[in-house]
Design brief:
The chain is mostly helical and about 200 residues long. The protein has twelve helices and no strands. This is Beta-lactamase.
Length: about 200
């Protein structure tokens, strides 16, 4: 996990999953590795690649997904089947399993984007963070702002960070304080919250 300072993109991609990818792999991991590897090689026709800006497809009622990386790992084919059928939480879970299996990339981004479209705000945040690699922050910042409005803590932390540093947006510490104040929805122990508090301390909260 990243520390509380200016994080490089790859650290951000780990952060916004809200999962410790260094944790021991759960039971069923070897089977999930095989399924995910095959999926990455053939690419299912029901899963468009992540080419849209998440802000353009995020539902107005997007919120926090109910997800289980352990449950999805133990039965990944069923998890992917439910994702295909339209379950946002299973798409989000499957994206996390992919990150554990083959790291962040086109497949995890596509699953996060499907989760986003189905109403998982944090799926939108993950895709936006991945898009920062292009050097164009227009879409990521639009996405963070919308996802923060829908109470996704990491979106608020990312938007606040960008406002403090002037990343693709004019520096604005007052606005940063307002969005970072929404980063602790899941409590002080959540890393979105701890990073937000570090940023607030940096600018004088």
């Amino acid at each position: 996990m990243s520390r509380c300072k200016i994080f490089p993109l790859l650290a951000v991609l780990v952060i916004v999953t809200a999962v410790n990818l260094l944790a021991p792999m759960p039971a069923g991991a070897s089977d999930s590795n095989e399924v995910i590897g095959k999926m990455a090689g053939t690419w299912p026709d029901w899963l468009p690649r992540a080419e849209q800006c998440p802000a353009d497809i995020m539902p107005s009622n997007a919120g926090a997904p109910a997800f289980s990386i352990e449950g999805c790992t133990a039965a990944v084919e069923q998890c992917l089947g439910r994702c295909r059928a339209g379950n946002a939480g299973d798409c989000y879970s499957a994206a996390l399993v992919v990150q554990r299996t083959i790291k962040t990339g086109p497949l995890s981004d596509a699953l996060f984007l499907r989760a986003c479209k189905l109403g998982a705000a944090s799926g939108c945040t993950n895709v936006a963070a991945s898009m920062e690699d292009s050097g164009d922050y227009t879409c990521p910042n639009r996405t963070y702002e919308l996802a923060c409005d829908r109470d996704d803590p990491w979106a608020c932390t990312m938007m606040g960070f960008h406002l403090i540093k002037g990343i693709g947006v004019e520096k604005n510490n007052d606005r940063a304080r307002r969005v970072l104040a929404k980063s602790c929805r899941f409590g002080d122990l959540d890393e979105a919250c701890s990073n937000a508090k570090a940023f607030l301390k940096e600018i004088g909260d």
